[in-house]
Amino acid sequence: MDLTGRTIFITGASRGLGRAIAEACAAAGGRLVLCARGADELGSTADTLAVGGTEVEWGPADVTDADAVAALVAGAERRFGRVDALVNNASVLGRRVPIREQSPEEWRRVMDINVTGTLIPTLAVLPGMRRAGEGSIVNLTSGVGDRPRARWGPYAISKWAVEGFTYNLALEEEEAGIRVNAVDPGKVRTRMRRAAYPAEDPSEPAPAHEVVDVFVWLASPESSGVTGQRFRAQEWP
């Protein structure tokens, strides 16, 4: 899979799965646009990739901040010409308690980051993709995003929303040549996984770098024509 000459925007790229996706895209020859809330970790990721020869545009942008995300994308378009692919990876877990114990404030926070934080980067890249007549958007879902699961509250419901967003957007943008798909990474060794399953053997989930191939494929021309689909990263290809 070759991403030479292609620019991939990855949110939540400072650590865990987001960083692993960035590293895989860099290894495939892609140029990167990276954002996350933590400037120090994100800067370290960007510096490491740049030392390896990857062209990187980055900024500590919160995905709920439309102005900050738009500014980052505008800078990337000035430097690279356009953004070819977007990976909406940023999300938060929230409290794993029954819905009756959820506070409206926590509910809004999770929905804002996980759902509106998928919309905002998408809106930032769509005009450029539509001008180019092609593009790929990949939204992160979850094993709790397509079936009922008690005590997963706003996180699970937010992922149901992300899947609905994916399928609707795929229909709306297909004629423009823009592909929109969802990926469930499965059990991955991340901080969020540890927070969700504190009693789990930490060596049981897969390392993040083992589940990234489907993201590179979806960002590449090899997946041309594939849209409106849901992939399980650990069952691909």
Structural notes for this entry:
The longest helix is centred in the middle third of the chain and has 29 residues, at about 105-130. The protein has one domain: 3-Layer(aba) Sandwich (Rossmann fold). It is of the alpha/beta class and about 240 residues long. Strands 3-2-1-4-5-6-7 form a seven-stranded parallel β-sheet, with helices on both faces. The chain has helices spanning about 15-25, 40-50, 65-80, 105-130, 155-175, 190-195, 215-220; strands at about 5-10, 30-35, 55-60, 85-90, 135-140, 180-185, 230. It has seven helices and seven strands. Helix 1 (about 15-25) links the parallel strand 1 and strand 2 (about 30-35).
Layout: helices, strands, pairs:
Elements: E1 7-11, H1 16-27, E2 31-35, H2 39-51, E3 56-59, H3 66-80, E4 85-88, H4 104-132, E5 135-140, H5 153-173, E6 178-184, H6 191-196, H7 213-219, E7 230-232
Parallel strand pairs: 1-2, 1-4, 2-3, 4-5, 5-6, 6-7
Helix pairs in contact: 3-4, 4-5
Question: Could you write a compact summary of the structure shown?
Answer:
Helix content is 43%, strand content 14%. The chain is α/β, with parallel strands linked by helices and 237 residues long.
Helix proportion range: 40-55%
Find the structural class using helix and strand composition: alpha/beta
Superfamily at the CATH H level? NAD(P)-binding Rossmann-like Domain
Whole-number tally of structural domains: 1
Q: Quote the average pLDDT.
A: 97
Largest sheet: 7 strands, parallel
Number of helices, counting only DSSP H or I runs of 4 residues or more = 7
Approximate strand percentage: 5-15%
Give me the side-by-side strand order of the main sheet: 3-2-1-4-5-6-7
H/E element order: EHEHEHEHEHEHHE
CATH architectural designation: 3-Layer(aba) Sandwich
Give the low-confidence spans. none
